[in-house]
TrEMBL record:
<dbReference type="InterPro" id="IPR033524">
    <property type="entry name" value="Glu/Leu/Phe/Val_DH_AS"/>
</dbReference>
<keyword id="KW-0560">Oxidoreductase</keyword>
<dbReference type="InterPro" id="IPR006096">
    <property type="entry name" value="Glu/Leu/Phe/Val/Trp_DH_C"/>
</dbReference>
<dbReference type="InterPro" id="IPR036291">
    <property type="entry name" value="NAD(P)-bd_dom_sf"/>
</dbReference>
<dbReference type="GO" id="GO:0004354">
    <property type="term" value="F:glutamate dehydrogenase (NADP+) activity"/>
</dbReference>
<feature type="domain" description="Glutamate/phenylalanine/leucine/valine/L-tryptophan dehydrogenase C-terminal">
    <location>
        <begin position="212"/>
        <end position="453"/>
    </location>
</feature>
<comment type="subunit">
    <text>Homohexamer.</text>
</comment>
<dbReference type="InterPro" id="IPR014362">
    <property type="entry name" value="Glu_DH"/>
</dbReference>
<dbReference type="Pfam" id="PF00208">
    <property type="entry name" value="ELFV_dehydrog"/>
</dbReference>
<dbReference type="InterPro" id="IPR006095">
    <property type="entry name" value="Glu/Leu/Phe/Val/Trp_DH"/>
</dbReference>
<dbReference type="InterPro" id="IPR006097">
    <property type="entry name" value="Glu/Leu/Phe/Val/Trp_DH_dimer"/>
</dbReference>
<dbReference type="InterPro" id="IPR033922">
    <property type="entry name" value="NAD_bind_Glu_DH"/>
</dbReference>
<dbReference type="Pfam" id="PF02812">
    <property type="entry name" value="ELFV_dehydrog_N"/>
</dbReference>
<comment type="similarity">
    <text>Belongs to the Glu/Leu/Phe/Val dehydrogenases family.</text>
</comment>
<dbReference type="InterPro" id="IPR046346">
    <property type="entry name" value="Aminoacid_DH-like_N_sf"/>
</dbReference>
<dbReference type="InterPro" id="IPR050724">
    <property type="entry name" value="Glu_Leu_Phe_Val_DH"/>
</dbReference>
<protein>
    <recommendedName>
        <fullName>Glutamate dehydrogenase</fullName>
    </recommendedName>
</protein>
Length: 455
């Protein structure tokens, strides 16, 4: 083994493990990035827990339990046949049934799904609940497709995937391009194929047929609650802060709502066509009308909002000065250059609503500048945690109210923040939420695996 500068940040005993991952799956850069980020945090726990190395827990944890790749044929409205590819990576079920969302986006490939599934394992462990980790999706592009095309695609996707699912086996939910509408089509097809009303097999369902209050809001709300906890630990709060949000989908919209409820001034949001800066603060009702109801573009928001809002085609929200950044669109959307701009503009906290939105170099820039940094596996865990609350309501057939469910979410986010902070302090890196989240998540999964024999 040749040790190179690329290995400098890895614990020496894990260099071989990391090289082996790259040798086996050389075309998976996102997965390598996610694994490296975890391994870089593990030196202190490996020193204190020699049982982990002896049982080769890290080598086992980086290998998915199962990867499913399948053909998804479907017909568009004009009768043309399309063939997409479907994926489900069932990464780890030591803590409970596989759990994690489905992403429909043309960029989806095995690498994307694998990195997301890997992150999901530790995120789900951090919730303190009994859920394993998985992720799935397809390279299907829903943009511009009619509702009946979306329905036919979902039906074809589920026709293959259903044999791998079950409320005690694997429970998907939404992610990019998959919301309540798509979950409805997927559930309908699952029910037809299995002849079972098995509500707990999918989460993110509609409220009238087994969904949970607050699931739709949970990821965005949870991320803002996590950011508020990080600020509180520094003697600050969100009231009056200038907040930058990227994205304008599910996570972004409900992050904006909760930040505004807590007194923040949300200046920005974005989509793949560009971003909006609104000096009066984002008008949530208008944003929801444009994005959730009309499924339109942000340029329409700026046009209808009047003089307070500017639409900037292309570009990035991170050039706008602000106090708190909530990246809520997609992976690697804050690079080192954007991070330096944020730091130069006086950013005080960055909390990841999206999965892996900050590149490793950018994370280093932020941490070295003393910015409070909430990694996605902790900060955006409110969505999956509320999915578990949905499954709980499905199992008992007892629906909860909005306020009660939101209170449970707030408690879970507070507990996740405390677990990360306490673990960071225990390993002599107080305030380092990355190390805290990685070690706390890994230890919970590892302990379950050790208790279950050679799994
Ligand atoms: N929906 C959920 O419960 C959870 C979602 N997440 C993560 O949050 C992020 C956003 O997901 P959702 O809001 O659910 O999806 P969504 O489909 O509702 O919205 C995605 C947003 O990101 C933007 N976007 C996507 N790809 C982009 C690209 N390549 N360039 C620029 N903008 C892009 C879209 O324009 C849209 O505004 C993803 O990283 C997802 O994995 C994390 C935890 C839970
Ligand atoms: O609610 C879920 O099961 C999964 C949410 C998700 O995909 C995520 O946390 O990234």
């Amino acid at each position: 083994m040749t040790v190179t500068s690329e290995h400098a940040t890895l614990p020496p005993e894990l260099i071989g493990t990391f090289d082996e991952i790259r040798r086996r799956d050389p075309a998976e850069p996102y997965f390598h990035q996610a694994v490296r980020e975890l391994l870089e945090s593990l030196a202190p726990v490996l020193t204190q827990r020699p049982d982990l190395a002896a049982s080769r827990i890290v080598e086992r944890i980086v290998e998915p339990e199962r990867q499913i790749i399948f053909r998804v044929p479907w017909q568009d409205d004009s009768g043309t046949i399309h063939i997409n590819r479907g994926f489900r990576v069932e990464f780890n079920s030591a803590l409970g049934p596989y759990k994690g969302g489905l992403r429909f986006h043309p960029s989806v490939n095995l690498d994307t799904v694998k990195f997301l599934g890997f992150e999901q394992v530790f995120k789900n462990a951090l919730t303190g609940l009994n859920i394993g980790g998985a992720k799935g999706g397809s390279d299907f592009d829903p943009k511009g497709r009619s509702p009946s095309e979306i329905m036919r695609f979902c039906q074809s996707f589920m026709t293959e995937l259903h044999r791998h699912l079950g409320e005690h086996t694997d429970v998907p939910a939404g992610d990019i391009g998959v919301g309540e509408r798509e979950i409805g089509y997927l559930f309908g097809q699952y029910r037809r194929l299995t002849n079972r009303w098995e509500a707990g097999v999918l989460t993110g369902k509609g409220l009238g047929w087994g969904g949970s209050p607050v699931r739709k809001e949970a990821t965005g709300y949870g991320n803002v609650l996590f950011a508020a906890e990080m600020l509180r630990a520094r003697g600050e709060d969100l009231d009056g802060q200038q907040v930058l949000v990227s994205g304008s989908g599910n996570v972004a919209i409900y992050a904006i709502e909760k930040a505004q409820q807590l007194g923040a001034h949300v200046l920005t949001c974005s989509d793949s066509g560009g971003y909006v800066v609104d000096e009066k603060g984002i008008d949530l009702a208008l944003l929801q009308q444009v994005k959730e109801v009309e499924r339109g573009r942000l340029a329409d928001y700026a046009q209808r909002r009047g003089s307070s809002a500017t639409h900037v085609p292309g570009g990035r929200v991170w050039d706008v000065p602000g106090d708190v950044a909530l990246p809520s669109a997609t992976q690697n959307e804050i690079d080192a250059d954007a991070a330096r701009t944020l730091v130069g503009n006086g950013i005080r906290a960055v909390s990841e609503g999206a999965n892996m939105p900050t590149t490793p170099d950018a994370v280093r820039v932020l941490r070295e500048a003393g910015v409070a940094f909430g990694p996605g596996k902790a900060a955006n865990a409110g969505g999956v945690a509320t999915s578990l609350l949905e499954m709980r309501q499905n199992a008992t057939r007892e629906p909860w109210g909005f306020e009660y469910t939101e209170q449970r979410l707030a408690e879970i986010m507070g507990d996740i923040h405390s677990a990360c902070a306490a673990t960071a302090a225990r390993y002599d890196v107080p305030g380092d939420y990355v190390t805290g989240a990685n070690i706390a998540g890994l230890e919970r999964v590892a302990d379950a695996m050790l208790a279950q024999g050679l799994v």
